[in-house]
Structures are given as structure tokens and as C-alpha cells.
Design brief:
By secondary structure, the chain is of the alpha/beta class. The chain contains 16 helices and 15 strands. A 7-stranded mixed sheet has the order 4-10-9-8-7-5-6, sandwiched between helices. It has a 4-stranded mixed sheet with strand order 1-2-3-13. It has a 4-stranded antiparallel sheet with strand order 11-12-15-14. β2 and β3 form a beta hairpin. The model has no long low-confidence stretch (mean pLDDT 96). The protein binds pyridoxal-5'-phosphate. Pyridoxal-5'-phosphate binds next to α6.
């Protein structure tokens, strides 16, 4: 490695110019946490510490860091063909990838639209839903329904349907009109319940109320099958089924945002299959490329594609939507290499096998006094830390102790969010929870 590129992962001369996303810039710049290298389940920090990655960064690298096969495929692709104009032109890889993705998506969700990330996948799904209704002559359908505590990215569409009010405060005047929100599914009796709670399916009836109130105006309902970023809210038994039935009754499209749950997190390729409920549209990102090159995906039913395509005159552009970086060669190469690994290493099955041990160990933290609730499913876990003074303070402090003690995870408010790599073994899970326990104990003693 030459001197210039060696420096890119080491300690910079100045921290002043980079405005970091979703961060306490001031806190970070006083006490930086820089990652200098990553391999398998482990990260190295600029202080020479080793961290075990219990959240795949941001749910991104379930096959582990530094996968040679992916690096090799991307590097080869960049040398051979680095960019193709994606409108009215193409290259073989993006078609091959779409075929391979469609083999895993449920039922007839066989049409694959590429975007750049999760946020652009969600905004594209919103536009596709509008285009579908317009193609069917339903121009009155303009409303979207989201859910409290839902996270669908930071573009205007995703922000509008998302359920984090504090993220929207600075831009309420530019949000989409007519958006309604259902209640989230976490009930007081779900405390420390393992897997899917028995109660709460009737919360889906919020959609029925909205559909009746705005009869003929609701275009689509978007939810995360398991709400991820907010701290892992597992759907009550029967809830998703009930939403599906209400959507069918009122001609509402059901969109599953599987940006976190997609590609094996639950032990099935998608949560749709795990919970046996098929949406009309699905959004994916993150694990699609093992997080190493940005890519988002919208998978839609054949019938939606057909309606939109056939509504345009022959030879015309059917959907005025797309991005410069829709399905760029480097992202496609990474995603194809990921597909190879999924198959070769029987990854989804591996998740199914290790998940019970992860869940059992996750719930063992229940005895800690400041642990207020635990939720989990597959290789996802949420741990609520008792609030201190103001929301988010306790979560951030525990997160910092975790980092100090060698375990990397995501904290949202006072919830610690865990999503370990699919290649985790029992010894890794033991290490993760020993370090989290130690960190929470330290936090309680301070
Ligand atoms: C469910 C869900 N949808 C959308 C997004 C947005 O994805 P991105 O940050 O890639 O735009 C996220 C990000 O965490 C997510 O969890």
C-alpha cells in the first residue's frame, strides 16, 4: 500500500471538516472512535483495541468483514467495466443479479428495480405504488400509511411514512401530504416475551380505521415486518396476516421494508417467508452487497410491473424514475458474490441453527437491574436500558462502555440493537454477551 492510501484508514490530521451523519459531532470530536481495519467478526480501532461486531456495523456485513471473494469480484468488475449509463442501456450483470434475487423473493415478487440505498428504495417503492394505481385509473389513491416507531430512511418519502417524530421536526412543511400512522405493536404485557407476542394482532385494525375514514384514498401501507432501528419490535402473532387481509379488502398495496430483515436475518430469506405473509412490494439494501458497495432494491409483483409497463405507449419510458447509480457494476458485482456465498455456505440455514442460542443468551441479561425489556427474533435483539434523566442518555453511555470493553453495537435512544453476523459461532455470541454484561455492570456502578 502506498503512503497516501495507508493514511486513509488511520488517524487524520483534522476532525473539523467532516460533518458526521446521525452523530454527536462534538462528543465524537472530543473522544474519537476510529476504526482502522476489519476482518471477519472483528474491528480494530485507532487505539489498537479489538471489537467484536455485534451489529454488523449498521446491519450491513452479515457475511463478516473483509470477504476476499467480494473484494475480488468488485476489483475485477472495476477493471473490466466500471460504469454503464443505466437508462436505455445496461450490462449483463444487473440482469443476472435480478434473476438471482427473484429466485429468493416470495411468490410473484419477480421484478427487481435497483436504487442506491434503503432510503432510495423506500422512496422508489412509494413512486411505484403511485404509478401502479395511476395505471389502473385510481388517481384518488394518494395516501400512505406508516407506523409509529417505523424507520424507512431519511429521504422525504421515507421520513414522511416513518414514525420517529424527532427526525421530522426540522422539515414538517416539506413532508408528504395525507400520511397516516398506525400505532406500533409494543404492548406493556410484551415485557421480556420471547419471539412473537401472543397479544396485539388487533393493532392491525388501525389500518382498517384509516381505510374506512379515507375510503378509496389509501395507496399503500408500509411497515418493517420486524421494526429494527427502533429496538426490535417483533410482530404479534396474526398481526401481519391481519394487515394483509385489510389491504386486500381495500385495494391497498402492502409494502414490507426488509432493509434489515432481508437476506436471512430471521433464518428465512425474507421475513415475508418467515411469517408466511406476502407483501406486494419489498424494499432491500444493506446485506444485498454485504454492505460494502451501496445498493438498494425494490422487488415488486409481476402484476404491478405489467400494469405500469402496459399503461405507457409502446416505445415510451414507462416509469420516470431512476438514479445515476441504479445497479452500477461495482454494486452488482458485490451482490453477485454475496449470492454465491449465500449458496455455498448455506447461510440462511446457518442463521436458523445459531438463532436459538443467540436468543437464549440475549435473554440471560434479564437479571440486570437496569435492563427494562428484551425483545428478539432470529439474529436480532433489542435491549431497553432504563431511562436516566432524559431519553437516550443511558443508551449512549452503555454504548460507550461497550465500545471500551470491545463490543460494537448500535444504540437507538435507550435501546441497544444487536444484529450479529450470520457467520457467528457460539463462542462469538458468548463473547458478545460477556462484554455487554460487563459494560452494563460498569454503567450501573458509575
Ligand atoms: C428498515 C429500514 N429502511 C430504510 C433504511 C434506510 O436505509 P439507508 O440508510 O441505506 O438509506 C433503513 C436504515 O437503517 C432501515 O433500517
Amino acid at each position: 500500500m502506498d503512503k497516501m492510501s495507508a493514511h486513509r484508514t488511520n488517524i487524520p490530521n483534522s476532525l473539523n471538516e467532516h460533518w458526521m451523519p446521525f452523530s454527536s459531532n462534538r462528543d465524537f470530536k472530543k473522544n474519537p472512535r476510529l476504526i482502522t481495519s476489519a476482518k471477519g467478526l472483528y474491528l480494530k480501532t485507532h487505539e489498537g483495541k479489538t471489537l467484536i461486531d455485534a451489529s454488523c456495523g449498521l446491519f450491513c456485513n452479515p457475511l463478516g468483514h473483509g470477504r476476499e471473494e467480494i473484494a475480488e469480484a468488485v476489483s475485477k468488475q472495476l477493471r473490466e467495466l466500471d460504469f454503464v449509463l443505466p437508462f436505455n442501456q445496461g450490462f449483463g450483470g444487473s440482469f443476472e443479479l435480478a434473476t438471482r434475487i427473484a429466485k429468493h423473493t416470495p411468490e410473484d415478487l419477480n421484478k427487481i428495480f435497483y436504487t442506491i440505498c434503503g432510503s432510495t428504495a423506500v422512496d422508489s417503492a412509494i413512486k411505484i405504488a403511485m404509478a401502479y394505481h395511476a395505471a389502473n385509473g385510481n388517481k384518488k389513491k394518494f395516501r400512505f400509511v406508516g407506523r409509529d416507531r417505523g424507520y424507512h430512511g431519511m429521504n422525504i418519502g421515507g421520513l414522511s411514512v416513518g414514525g420517529f417524530n424527532n427526525y421530522k421536526e426540522m422539515c414538517t412543511s416539506v413532508l408528504m401530504p395525507g400520511v397516516q400512522h398506525m400505532r406500533h405493536t409494543l404492548l406493556p404485557e410484551h415485557k421480556f416475551v420471547k419471539g412473537q407476542p401472543d397479544t396485539g394482532a388487533e393493532l392491525a385494525d388501525d389500518l382498517e380505521l384509516i381505510a374506512n375514514k379515507f375510503e378509496g384514498e389509501v395507496a399503500a401501507c408500509i411497515i418493517e415486518p420486524i421494526a429494527g432501528s427502533t429496538g426490535i419490535l417483533v410482530p404479534p402473532k396474526g398481526y401481519l396476516d391481519r394487515l394483509r387481509k385489510i389491504c386486500d379488502k381495500h385495494g391497498i398495496l402492502l409494502i414490507f421494508d426488509e432493509v434489515i430483515t432481508g437476506w436471512g436475518r430471521t433464518g428465512s430469506p425474507f421475513a415475508a417467508q418467515e411469517f408466511n405473509v406476502t407483501p406486494d412490494i419489498m424494499t432491500l439494501a444493506k446485506a444485498t452487497t454485504n454492505g460494502v458497495v451501496p445498493m438498494g432494491v425494490v422487488a415488486v409483483r409481476d402484476g404491478i410491473y405489467d400494469a405500469v409497463i402496459n399503461s405507457a405507449p409502446e416505445g415510451a419510458i414507462e416509469l420516470f424514475h431512476g438514479y445515476t447509480y441504479s445497479g452500477i457494476p461495482a454494486a452488482v458485482a458485490a451482490a453477485l458474490a454475496v449470492q454465491d456465498i449465500f449458496e455455498k455456505e448455506n447461510i440462511f440455514n446457518r442463521v436458523k441453527k445459531i438463532s436459538p442460542y443467540f436468543q437464549e443468551t440475549l435473554y440471560s441479561l434479564k437479571d440486570l437491574e437496569c435492563v427494562e425489556n428484551i425483545r428478539g427474533y432470529g439474529l436480532l435483539g433489542g435491549i431497553d436500558i432504563k431511562m436516566k434523566d432524559k431519553p437516550g442518555k443511558a443508551g449512549f453511555q452503555v454504548y460507550k462502555f461497550c465500545y471500551e470493553n470491545g463490543v460494537n453495537l448500535k444504540a437507538t435512544g435507550d435501546a441497544l440493537v444487536l444484529a450479529p453476523p450470520f457467520i457467528s459461532e457460539k463462542k462469538h455470541i458468548d463473547e458478545i454477551f460477556e462484554k455487554i454484561r460487563k459494560s452494563i455492570n460498569q454503567y450501573m456502578k458509575q
